[in-house]
Recover the amino acids of this structure.
């Protein structure tokens, strides 16, 4: 019979059959350039599947079958089979004990995590003392609390107003500009697990390399009593990477995806650190904070993600919020090779060109402290699907000071 029929009969894939042939576990007769599987092939496969069911690896199975062939005896009639099976039994027993020890450690760790969650007292909200950093996006006036619920000096739910009568809602500790609403959707609960599972390992490695580089540079700065602003905070990779350094700092995280903020808020509340974080759901061009209050500005590909669809924003729109001696930590998605049919609009593509990016940074007269380019990536993932096969992208990172 042909390979397709043989694989269907035994409920295994054609690829598996070919792999067994390559390992010479089954040796079908080759006729006219095609394999022909007879009763000998079936007996060989039955033996392979039986030995696999006992936990033997394919290499071990190959050795067993060679011994059987060379000795011209049936293993069932030999003491050799008994010895081989005893060794495998000892090996499996050892693995079982190791797995049982791992299981006990995991059970203890799960109880430990659950106990910490029960003791959780941290609530992410807008600290009343931080209202002094906020202002109306229309008139620039101060925002004051008109009504709301406060816990541990933080506004959890409430309404901010300014002299021009504009209102800004705080829902579940998140400051919301204009029409976004907090959702009861729990679909983001496993978003980090999904991201790590579905994203190519080279993307993960590149992300980690960039985060480590940023952490290394920010460690050189005294962050005490500093105000940090990040646009496009997303899943909070940058914030969580810096969280242990923010004891006496204020971190303002901007993102226009309310569900990302909800997810990040939950993670922060499950930590044991009561750091000062302000989550604001808004567009990059409508940030309700005062001018010249930011000590450190972070753009961890937030602009690049914005430029996939829009072309009306640049770092110049942020400069008014920065102090005269502020630091900037920037990262941009750069295309080394881009195809004509890429979904990015033609007029937006300049934003992904390294020469253009560097020229824009230079125009703003930052003093360069450090810069980094990651390795090129050429394989897209579910969550990193902004390029196609044949294209090449990398991340350019810049650290500087005004």
């Amino acid at each position: 019979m042909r390979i397709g029929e043989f694989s269907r009969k035994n409920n295994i894939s054609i690829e598996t059959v070919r792999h067994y042939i390559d390992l010479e576990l089954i040796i079908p007769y080759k006729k006219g350039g095609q394999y022909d599987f007879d009763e000998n092939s079936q007996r060989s496969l039955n033996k392979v599947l039986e030995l696999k069911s006992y936990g033997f690896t394919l290499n071990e199975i190959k050795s067993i079958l060679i011994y059987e062939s060379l000795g011209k005896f049936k293993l069932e009639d030999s003491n050799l089979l008994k010895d081989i099976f005893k060794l495998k039994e000892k090996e499996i027993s050892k693995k079982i004990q190791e797995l049982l020890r791992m299981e006990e450690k995991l059970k203890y760790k799960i109880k430990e995590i659950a106990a910490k969650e029960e003791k959780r007292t941290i609530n992410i909200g807008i600290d009343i003392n931080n209202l002094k950093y906020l202002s109306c996006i229309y008139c620039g006036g101060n925002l004051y609390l008109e009504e709301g619920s406060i816990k541990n000096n933080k506004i959890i739910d409430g309404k901010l107003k300014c002299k021009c009568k504009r209102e800004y809602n705080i829902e579940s500790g998140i400051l919301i500009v204009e029409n976004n609403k907090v959702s009861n959707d729990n679909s983001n609960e496993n978003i980090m697990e999904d991201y790590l599972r579905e994203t190519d390992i080279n993307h993960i490695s590149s992300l980690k390399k960039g985060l480590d580089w940023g952490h290394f540079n920010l460690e050189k700065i005294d962050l005490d009593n500093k105000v940090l602003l990040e646009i496009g905070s997303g899943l909070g990779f940058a914030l969580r990477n810096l969280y242990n350094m923010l004891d006496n700092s204020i971190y303002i995280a901007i993102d226009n995806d309310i569900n990302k903020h909800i997810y990040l808020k939950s993670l922060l509340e499950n930590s044991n650190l009561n750091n000062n974080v302000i989550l604001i759901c808004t567009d990059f061009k409508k940030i309700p904070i005062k001018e010249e209050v930011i000590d450190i500005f972070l753009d961890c590909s937030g602009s690049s993600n914005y430029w996939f669809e829009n072309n009306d924003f640049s770092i110049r729109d942020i400069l008014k919020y920065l102090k005269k001696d502020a630091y900037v930590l920037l990262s941009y998605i750069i295309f080394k090779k881009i195809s004509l049919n890429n979904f990015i609009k033609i007029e937006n593509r300049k934003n992904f060109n390294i020469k253009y990016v560097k020229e824009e940074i230079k125009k703003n007269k930052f003093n360069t402290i450090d810069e980094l380019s990651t390795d090129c990536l050429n394989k897209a993932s579910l969550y990193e699907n902004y390029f196609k096969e044949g294209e090449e992208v990398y991340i350019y990172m810049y650290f500087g000071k005004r």
Observations:
- The first strand starts at residue 29 and ends at 31.
